[in-house]
UniProtKB/TrEMBL annotation, chain B:
<dbReference type="GO" id="GO:0015833">
    <property type="term" value="P:peptide transport"/>
</dbReference>
<keyword id="KW-0547">Nucleotide-binding</keyword>
<dbReference type="InterPro" id="IPR003439">
    <property type="entry name" value="ABC_transporter-like_ATP-bd"/>
</dbReference>
<feature type="domain" description="ABC transporter">
    <location>
        <begin position="15"/>
        <end position="265"/>
    </location>
</feature>
<dbReference type="GO" id="GO:0016887">
    <property type="term" value="F:ATP hydrolysis activity"/>
</dbReference>
From TrEMBL, chain C:
<dbReference type="InterPro" id="IPR003439">
    <property type="entry name" value="ABC_transporter-like_ATP-bd"/>
</dbReference>
<feature type="domain" description="ABC transporter">
    <location>
        <begin position="12"/>
        <end position="260"/>
    </location>
</feature>
<dbReference type="GO" id="GO:0015833">
    <property type="term" value="P:peptide transport"/>
</dbReference>
<keyword id="KW-0067">ATP-binding</keyword>
<keyword id="KW-0813">Transport</keyword>
Automatic annotation (TrEMBL), chain D:
<feature type="transmembrane region" description="Helical">
    <location>
        <begin position="163"/>
        <end position="185"/>
    </location>
</feature>
<keyword id="KW-0813">Transport</keyword>
<protein>
    <submittedName>
        <fullName>Peptide/nickel transport system permease protein</fullName>
    </submittedName>
</protein>
<keyword id="KW-0812">Transmembrane</keyword>
<feature type="transmembrane region" description="Helical">
    <location>
        <begin position="28"/>
        <end position="48"/>
    </location>
</feature>
UniProtKB/TrEMBL annotation, chain E:
<keyword id="KW-0812">Transmembrane</keyword>
<comment type="similarity">
    <text>Belongs to the binding-protein-dependent transport system permease family.</text>
</comment>
<feature type="transmembrane region" description="Helical">
    <location>
        <begin position="118"/>
        <end position="139"/>
    </location>
</feature>
<feature type="domain" description="ABC transmembrane type-1">
    <location>
        <begin position="112"/>
        <end position="321"/>
    </location>
</feature>
<dbReference type="InterPro" id="IPR045621">
    <property type="entry name" value="BPD_transp_1_N"/>
</dbReference>
């Protein structure tokens, strides 16, 4: 029964700064926003798409997707109401697209609308999305928590440059979700009450919901597992010992789900040497003096014991992987040959490559020392990984210098800073990345030659390693036009293996799961890594 | 005495002070505008002759120290000139002034405060040598020992710190420092005020001995009138930034002319109960006016027991009223009009330095 | 009692010691003196001779520790004020014994106005309410000769000159009509002209109020002018005691004599050379076993280095009354005392 | 007093200071503790010659040797990667104490310089004090980030990574913590300038430079000592904060601050891991504080003169 | 006094303008960009567009002058409108945070209550603990009380607050379950129960900060008391026969407070600056947390506005400290 279970308290270790996913793509903002704003369709916990505000998913079979893949037609569920009681219509969907695609708006989710030519309302309950060309994977816009529907009436005056001025609307959007905002404190807390006009009259079970933000993961976990102050804590990534100790406390439990997030080591294919003039460092002009050799990269990968890394750093919320695309299952390569550590093999490979152990135990070749600078962002687990991997590489005869950078700088992409991961002024670097939704296409095609960060592009670009292979570029071009899931999967697997197993340009380490915690009295929690963790708050209930 | 034993040689002026003014500006208001001055020294004239001791007395805050410091240009003068050995100190360039410093030195009031507590006696005494000579360390040490002998300090004390000395000994260190560069002129700013009676005598005797030996010239600032009587040849009485009277010692003590000098002298207690009981005192009423706002006319008019109306209107000038005696008072008419305003017009004869009669 | 009335204050064998890191400092050694009603007792001695410590020991104003009053009794009337409780002692301070300190510049609390500080003892001891205390404070200010008292009571100490501050201190000390006023070098920090004003004031008040006064100074000139009787202190001991005229006319102790000789005067013969007391004052340490003045004394002989002389009366009378001296040498005979 | 004491052989000022210092019990204990700590971190590694960053490359062994409680083999236990805590504490102490001392020296030097100049030269006073205000108002984090960005690479090039980082850290801490010292010193100098011995030196013709060196500086030692002791504590803790911004030493480089922070995560299971660095930092700060107390007393001529 | 105040205020304006420019350049130059909080999944071209929409790419001086105008013209107008119901500021661009797209001033106003209650209370409490401890330690110098006080103060200095905070949470929140470990900013005190809840959630952060503040201030108070206890006027007060309580509490304390009050006043801007670490540990989310979040997210308008307000407070309290000094000490008069 709606509202029967009182209040539920959720803790986000990063605080929410805005409820409108189009103005901030921060995960916490998107997820908490999804409690109020809903997309037309979402993903369930296994990554299958399902309709939310529409009667059915468009498909080739039901005609929702045009044969030539150039348009999609959505059929809105009749009788849907916004939380203010007005009717949800196709106009709202059309407006949402216009809102995000306005060039002056700085929409954070513009990628969702890539290739969209127009969105029109056929009738109040039918929306047609037309693309500029055939789109093999057309169900992107209005799907998933990143692309929710805004109410036209509320945001009509907030398009383009006016978008940031609508503070009231951005903080307290009118939505179709199970709750509505009653109080919003920037970067602090959000209070919700049940939406009286929610489409399922029996839901949500809770009358109110509060989201608190800030702090660190360990204390967030503690607030659920040990003190019991909160019902749910988001992303409680802590060390395995602490996980075990807290789980034994009996107040709550951890839930894990695996998505596409992979912790990896990226090899720099270009020379980052500080002796090079600025503008030539880490550019395609100078290949890397050591790492250009595939056997060297392979040896470095072989020296790593991924299982141990998982055990030390993640416990149940991680698993070793050799793939850049570990999921969904059909896109994942079966390759597991990197899992077993092979120190002797690695040494042999280096010996064969001409790197011989010198007097002080460090390998040399042509008078050049085997020395690597290994950088990553500040994070206790990453620092443990650095230390462990440095130990193994030392064993190989490689001298390693470690460097950590504040994540704000490392991931900030400021072209003025030498320490961004895109600039890659180091030999190897470690971080994690994933892709939204279930389609790896944009993720994998980013490794084409032209996407390498370089001074001319203000160091923007996703091909961090500066990997460049014409064969790969061709495959990428092919993938974009291929339809049919199986065919696409084959290409993705091939591309993935080119980057990992064939060339060791990218050395995947750990497939990182999502670890969240909820109290034993909170029922109905289903951890969903493909969409918002709040995707089913309406089903949560109090266990009495 | 002055008249009794005229000097045979013509004495030379060592220091000539002309219309010396030393104002400390007061800034007030939003823009820190210069709105007034503390007139610490307000236009004074006097000379000091080679080899004499000029006493400077007056009550606290009347500007005695300021005069002493201005004479050595430790302050930038507001107006006037100070000529020492023919050179005007007030306008010298910094480097020239530094060169001139060895010939004029100062002994300070508080023997504790004027010695750097973290330097040894040897360091303190040799500091002037460090600054003005390029002697070797040995030469300097030899000179330091010589100076310590001269002021009666045991050489063994050379490595001690000032705190380990008694007040009298500390004052000797200060004197040794002042003597290091063979000065001709020394300003003694209340050198005995902080000392015990029994020790005051030691220091005063030392100063006298040195004067005799080295032919020094002193400006001796003090408010202990009995000590001044002992050591000074001539005495200047100051009141509120101006000179009330300058006279040779004996006539002044016997017969002060300026009402303030009278009051001052009468206030000195006499260590003889019988005389003390019969003595007539002039007790001044009220407080000294603020030097930033001196009264119009004669600046003593607010407390003067003999005040007449003109005192409140017209500022009396310092004038020679008796031979060698200068007074700034309307009640003491000048005998010799052409000497008004300055001592420079007359030849003041020096009372015999060596020939002090041994009565 | 042979001499005069019963003393208001009678100090017997007072001994005060400072316990310091470098060992005990015997600052006051068996000091005895008495004070008769209406009398002005002068105390002279050079710096560090224990004048202030003696007076402050009487009413427990020394910081304890390090100070410690080891022996002696201090009779105020019939009460031994060294033995009474701290609370009783506080009733004595300010009420029966008034105190004026050496340095008028620092002895007043800079953050309270004069009125507040003058009224404090009145309200504490006399049980006056604010209005009464205020009226009395105005009277007191007039008594010590401060013009326009109503206005000046609202002023702060820094707005007063040194002489006026000393007058305020005197007003505070006189507030409760004490039997005894102890003035510790009240004029040392002041100018001669101001000093003359203060001395004049005390003389006047003494005749008006008739209290007994102890006046500490090292200026013999001041003593000569106002004291009835004088005690001379040296190194924590009383070395000579006599009526003022007698002392100046017929000093007995070599130290007193030397002291009298060192002072130049504004009148009389001018010395060509000042007399000095050679040597340095002694360092106070353990209780003296020899005459502390012996090292500087022209008459010292072997007994002086072996035995600390005790005070002996000259002529008739007893120690403390008339003329007495602590010296092995007999000045009148010009030989060692028997 | 000493005047009549038997004529002792002349002692240097520092000998006097030491004599006075010795009478301060707290300071002596502090000195003993501090010297022990310095010995522990400097001589200790020679005796206990384990590599503080050594991780057993064999995974199975490593797993077995992690998170060990104190034992004979690992007197202070091991950390989550099986590294020897004793060796880490020693190595960490070297860095922390070195950073603490050097950064303190820099900040004190700078603070003293600004304070003395502001106090001594009246014309510069206002300007310098406004600069001090400015530094107080500047947000430190961006300042540090900018400094790291601009100077980290050139310094690393010139002095090697560790040397460069060390320099960067100590300079950064020094540059951002001198203001307090400057204010205190300025106040002191203003008062000192009015003292007569400064006037005496002027009457001799001592120029400003020597006046400051000879007369002013030695006499502001006491407040400087106090600022110095507080400075060490501040520097050690700031250093640890810097490494969390990635501005500090490389991550495998233990320092007490970092050990404390890393250990905090494991406080419930292995509390000793925070206790070691926590106690070490507190002991250093406490001992330095007591030493400072003693030195201040010993340097104060009023006290020494007693 | 008035002219002194005016004069100082007048001089403060150029100083502050200069400080604001420096802060702006510094924050702008600092590495890091507002994009760092955005997941890597957002493609580079979208990032560039977002930055453009924020105005990040405008030349730095254009942005600085825009900020100046917004801070000194627009925001005061908004305030005016808010108070008097006028609408002069309509259509004017306020200072908007890059992170949350909301006016920075609104966020600051929103954060003020918890900052003032928690940090303010801890400061007041710290002062209230520190003063008696300082007074008694000095009055009984080298007693056991004094020694222990010194020891605790030193510990208070040397142990970082993240550590004390963590220990308190483990003891009081996890084991004893007395206090919540997380601060609820939406709690409104309306009755006794909510007051108790508020008191409980404030307990731990206030303890941590009060210990830190008290450690520092008690040291100042102690040394100031020691200086004054030996003063001549204390002897005078005793000679009047006043009781020890009055001598110490009336005469000594008032004088000793003179330097301490300025120390306390100069510490007040740090209340507004927030205690960054403590705020994070207990999720008080006050101004300190706002600033650190803004710096990490390179949210230049927020950082600039906040630090400038702190700079104003520092200058202002410097002045207040001087004025207080003059008021407490009649010897000092500023004209
Ligand atoms: N640096 C200064 N700034 C402002 N006023 C000053 C300064 N130095 C001295 N004065 C003022 O000038 C006047 C004369 O001071 P000075 O020190 O010369 O007096 P003095 O006669 O030496 O007194 P004392 O006998 O107390 O030493 C005083 O009113 C004093 O306040
Ligand atoms: N707190 C103390 N600790 C140790 N010795 C002290 C202390 N106070 C005073 N004395 C010593 O007691 C002796 C007597 O001091 P006191 O102040 O009584 O001298 P005084 O005769 O009043 O001198 P002055 O004329 O300078 O005031 C001195 O030798 C002094 O050093
Ligand atoms: Mg003077
Ligand atoms: Mg005394
Ligand atoms: Ni000594």
């Amino acid at each position: 029964e709606r509202g029967a279970d009182g209040n539920v308290k959720v803790l986000y270790s990063q605080a929410v700064s805005i409820m409108n996913a189009y103005l901030s793509s921060g995960t916490k903002d998107v997820e908490v926003g999804s409690i109020v704003l809903e997309p037309l369709a979402g993903f369930d916990e296994v990554g299958t798409m399902f309709p939310r505000l529409v009667t059915e998913l468009p498909s080739l079979e039901n005609g929702g997707i045009a044969e030539d893949l150039t348009s999609v037609t959505w059929k809105i569920t009749p009788g849907l109401l916004w939380s203010d009681g007005t009717a949800f219509t196709a106009d709202d969907v059309v407006f949402t697209a216009a809102y995000c695609m306005d060039p002056a708006g700085g929409c954070a989710q513009l990628a969702k609308y890539e290739g969209v030519q127009s969105v029109e309302a056929i009738d109040p309950l039918t929306v047609k999305v037309t693309f500029t060309g055939p789109k093999p994977n057309p169900l992107v816009a209005f799907v998933g928590a990143e692309s929710p529907i805004l109410q036209k009436a509320q945001f009509a005056n907030c398009t383009g440059a006016a978008a940031p001025t609508c503070t009231e609307a951005n903080f307290n959007p009118i939505g179709t979700g199970p709750f509505m905002v009653t109080d919003f404190k920037v970067n602090d807390s959000v209070e919700f009450v049940a939406n009286p006009n929610y489409r399922d009259p029996a839901k949500p079970n809770f009358a109110t919901l509060s989201v608190k933000g800030g702090g660190d993961a360990a204390s967030a976990a503690r607030a659920v597992m040990e003190t019991g102050e909160f019902d749910y804590a988001w992303n409680t990534q802590i060390n395995p010992e602490l996980q075990a100790a807290m789980a034994a406390g009996g107040k709550g439990q951890f839930v894990t789900g695996f998505g596409t997030l992979v912790e990896r080591i990226e090899m720099n294919m270009t020379d980052p040497s500080p002796d090079l003039p600025e503008g030539e460092r880490s550019t395609a002009m100078h290949p890397h003096p050591i790492l250009s050799d595939v056997n060297v990269r392979k040896a470095l990968s072989m020296a790593i014991d991924r299982s141990l890394l998982v055990e030390v750093g993640y416990g149940a919320s991680g698993r070793p992987t050799c793939n850049l695309v570990p999921a969904p299952a059909i896109y994942a390569s079966p390759n597991t040959d990197c899992i077993a550590q092979d120190m002797d093999g690695a040494k042999a490979l280096l010996d064969a490559a001409g790197w011989v152990v010198g007097a002080d135990g460090v390998r040399e070749k042509d008078g050049k020392r085997f020395k690597l600078l290994y950088q990553t962002s500040v994070n206790p687990v990453r620092q443990d990984f650095q230390a462990l991997i440095k130990g193994w590489w030392n064993e190989l005869g490689v001298e390693v210098e470690l460097k950590t950078i504040d994540s704000g700088i490392f991931f900030g992409g400021d072209p003025g800073s030498p320490d961004t991961f895109q600039k890659f002024y180091a030999d190897v670097e470690m971080y994690a990345n994933n892709f939204p939704g279930t389609d790896p296409e944009p993720y994998i095609v980013a490794y084409t030659c032209d996407k390498a960060p370089k001074p001319e592009s203000q160091w923007q670009g996703e091909n961090i390693n500066r990997f460049c292979d014409p064969v790969f570029d061709e495959l990428a071009a092919k993938l974009i036009t291929t339809k049919g899931e199986a065919e696409r999967a084959a290409i993705v697997i091939r591309m993935n293996e080119m980057l990992t197993k064939d060339t060791y340009t990218i050395v995947p380490l750990v497939d990182r799961g999502r670890l969240s915690a909820h109290s034993n009295t909170l029922g109905g929690v289903v951890l969903n890594v493909w969409d918002s963790e709040m995707h089913n708050v309406q089903d949560w209930f109090r266990i009495k | 005495m002055l008249d009794a034993k005229p000097s045979v040689k013509l004495v030379t002026k060592l220091v000539e002070v002309k219309d010396l003014k030393m104002y400390f500006p007061i800034h007030t208001g939003l823009f820190r505008r210069h709105t007034g001055d503390v007139k610490a020294v307000d236009g004074i004239n006097f000379d000091i002759y080679q080899g004499e001791t000029l006493g400077l007395v007056g009550e606290s805050g009347c500007g005695k120290s300021t005069v002493g410091r201005a004479l050595l240009r430790l302050y930038e003068l507001t107006a006037g000139s100070v000529t020492i050995e023919g050179e005007d100190i007030a306008t010298l360039e910094p480097e020239a002034l530094r060169k001139k410093r060895p010939m004029m030195q100062m002994v300070f009031q508080d023997p504790q405060a004027c010695l750097n507590p973290r330097m040894t006696v040897a360091q303190i005494v040799s500091e002037p040598l460090d600054e003005h000579t390029d002697w070797s360390a040995d030469q300097k040490l030899a000179k330091v020992y010589e100076l310590m002998d001269a002021v009666g300090l045991n050489r063994v004390f050379a490595n001690r710190y000032p705190h380990a000395f008694s007040g009298g000994q500390r004052q000797r260190i200060g004197i040794a420092r002042a003597l290091a560069l063979n000065p001709k002129f020394i300003v003694c700013d209340e050198p005995i005020a902080a000392l015990d009676v029994s020790i005051q005598a030691q220091v005063v005797n030392l100063l006298e001995d040195l004067q005799e030996k080295l032919g020094l010239t002193y400006l001796f600032i003090s408010h202990d009138l009995s000590m001044v009587r002992h050591i000074a040849d001539r005495v200047a009485v100051m009141y509120l930034g101006r000179i009330a009277e300058i006279s040779p010692r004996e006539p002044l003590y016997a017969d002060p002319l300026h009402p303030y000098a009278k009051a001052l002298l009468s206030a000195v207690p006499d260590p003889d109960p019988s005389r003390e009981a019969t003595r007539q005192r002039i007790i001044l009423k009220g407080d000294v006016p603020s030097p930033s706002n001196p009264p119009k006319g004669c600046n003593f008019c607010t407390r003067c027991p003999e005040v007449i109306p003109i005192c409140r209107e017209v500022k009396p000038e310092l004038a020679e009223v008796r031979p060698g005696r200068f007074v700034a008072c309307h009640l003491v008419p000048a005998q010799n009009n052409n000497a008004a305003g300055s001592t420079s017009g007359t030849t003041v004869q020096k009372h015999n330095q060596q020939g002090e009669p041994e009565q | 009692m042979p001499d005069g009335a019963k003393p208001v204050l009678d100090v017997r064998g007072l001994q005060t010691v400072f316990r310091t890191r470098g060992g005990d400092v015997h600052a006051v050694n068996s000091v005895s003196f008495h004070l008769e009603p209406g009398e002005l007792l002068g105390v002279v001695g050079e710096s560090g001779s224990g004048k202030s410590v003696t007076m402050m020991s009487l009413i427990g104003l020394l910081p304890m520790p390090p100070a410690e009053v080891r022996e002696g009794e201090v009779l105020l009337g019939d009460m031994d004020i060294l033995k009474i409780s701290p609370a009783q002692l506080r009733d004595v301070r300010g009420r029966r014994i008034g105190f004026v300190f050496q340095d008028p510049m620092t002895s007043l609390n800079p953050v309270y106005n004069i009125g507040n500080q003058v009224m404090e003892p009145l309200r504490r001891h006399m049980g006056m309410n604010k209005a009464q205390a205020y009226t009395r404070a105005v009277e007191l200010m007039e008594l010590v000769g401060i013009p326009d008292p109503e206005r000046r009571l609202k002023d702060y100490p820094h707005q007063f000159s040194g002489g006026m501050r000393q007058r305020v201190m005197i007003a505070i000390a006189l507030a409760c009509d004490p039997e005894v006023l102890i003035a510790d070098e009240p004029t040392t920090a002041l100018d001669v002209t101001i000093q003359a004003q203060i001395i004049e004031l005390v003389k006047e008040l003494r005749t008006k109020l008739g209290m007994a006064i102890v006046w500490i100074t090292h200026d013999l000139g001041v003593i000569a002018g106002i004291a009835d009787r004088v005690i001379v202190m040296y190194a924590g001991q009383v070395v000579e005691q006599a009526p003022v005229k007698e002392l100046f006319a017929n000093p007995q102790h070599p130290y007193t004599r030397a002291l009298l000789k060192t002072i130049p005067s504004v009148t009389g013969e001018r010395e060509t050379r000042l007399k000095v007391i050679e040597g340095q004052p002694p360092i106070l340490g353990a209780a003296p076993t020899a005459c502390p003045f012996a090292p500087r004394c022209g008459h010292a002989f072997d007994r002086c280095g072996a035995e600390n002389p005790i005070r002996r009366a000259l002529g008739a009378g007893r120690v403390g009354y008339g003329h007495d001296v602590a010296c092995h040498w007999d000045a009148s005979k010009g030989a060692a005392h028997a | 007093m000493t005047d009549t004491a038997p004529l002792a052989k002349p002692r240097s000022q520092w000998a006097d200071v030491w004599v006075q210092f010795k009478t301060h019990k707290g300071a002596l204990v502090g000195l003993f503790v501090f010297v022990s700590l310095v010995l522990f971190v400097s001589v200790g590694p020679l005796i206990w010659a384990k590599d503080p960053t050594f991780i057993n490359p064999d995974g199975a062994t490593m797993i077995r040797t992690r998170n060990k409680p104190p034992s004979l083999e690992w007197p202070l236990g091991t950390d989550q990667l099986g590294r020897d805590m004793l060796a880490r504490m020693m190595k960490g102490g070297q860095v922390s104490i070195a950073v603490g001392l050097t950064a303190m020296v820099i900040s004190i030097t700078l603070g003293t310089f600004v304070g003395v100049i502001a106090g001594y030269f009246k014309r510069l006073d206002n300007v310098l004090m406004r600069v001090t205000d400015l530094f107080l108002a500047l947000p430190l984090l961006p300042l540090l980030l900018v400094m790291a960005m601009l100077f980290r690479d050139p310094l690393s090039k010139a002095f090697g990574t560790e040397g460069g980082t060390f320099l960067l850290i100590v300079v950064a801490i020094g540059l951002t913590s001198w203001m307090q010292a400057a204010r205190v010193v300025r106040g002191e100098v203003l008062a000192l300038k009015e003292r007569e011995f400064v006037l005496a030196a002027r009457s001799i013709g001592t120029p400003s430079r020597r006046m400051i060196l000879r007369h002013i500086l030695p006499n502001v030692m006491s407040p400087i000592m106090v600022a110095a002791t507080l400075g060490i504590a501040n520097a050690i803790i700031t250093e640890s904060a810097l490494s969390f911004l990635g501005l500090g030493f490389p991550p495998d480089f233990p320092t007490w601050g970092r050990l404390l922070f890393d250990g905090a995560e494991y406080i419930q299971q292995f509390p000793e891991r925070v206790i070691w660095p926590g106690v070490a930092i507190s002991l250093t700060v406490l001992s330095v504080n007591y030493i400072g107390d003693g030195l201040r007393d010993a340097l104060d001529p009023r006290i020494r003169g007693r | 006094m008035l002219t002194f105040t005016l004069r100082r205020l007048m001089f403060a304006i150029p100083t502050l303008l200069f400080i604001s420019l420096l802060i702006f350049l510094l924050v702008d130059l600092a590495p890091g960009s507002p994009m760092s909080q955005i997941p890597l999944t957002v493609p580079p071209d979208v990032r560039l567009k977002i930055m453009e929409a924020m105005g990040v790419n405008e030349p730095v001086f254009v942005r600085y002058f825009l900020w100046l105008k917004q801070f000194f013209v627009v925001e005061p107008l908004v305030l005016w409108d808010h108070w008097f119901g006028t609408s002069y500021s309509d259509g004017m661009q306020r200072i908007v945070s890059w992170q949350s797209r909301s006016p920075v001033m609104d966020i600051i106003v929103e954060r003020m209550p918890q900052t003032l209650t928690v940090i303010g209370t801890s400061y007041v409490l710290g002062v209230m603990i520190a003063l008696p401890i300082g007074i008694y330690s000095a009055y009984r110098q080298y007693s056991w009380f004094d020694q222990i006080g010194t020891f605790i103060a030193m510990i208070g200095f040397s142990v970082p607050t993240f550590f004390t905070g963590l220990v308190l949470i483990l003891v009081f929140a996890v084991n004893l379950q007395w206090f919540p470990s997380i601060y609820d900013t939406s709690l409104r005190v309306t009755d006794w129960d909510s007051f108790l809840a508020q008191a409980r959630q404030m307990a731990m952060p206030v303890m941590v900060l009060a210990l830190f503040n008290a450690a520092q201030i008690s040291r100042y108070m102690r040394s100031s008391m020691l200086e004054n206890l030996g003063a001549d006027y204390v002897r005078t007060a005793r000679a009047k026969g006043l009781s020890e309580r009055i001598v110490v509490l009336k005469h000594v304390v008032r004088n000793s407070m003179i330097p301490v009050v300025t120390v306390i006043a100069l510490g007040i801007p740090s209340i507004f600056g927030g205690a960054i670490i403590t705020e994070q540990v207990f999720r008080v989310n006050g101004l300190g947390a706002l600033l650190i979040g803004a710096i990490q997210g390179s949210d230049l308008p927020t950082v600039q506005t906040l630090t400038f307000i702190f700079a104003v407070l520092i200058v202002l309290f410097n002045l207040i400290a001087d004025i207080l000094y003059g008021m407490l000490d009649p010897r000092i008069r500023y004209d």
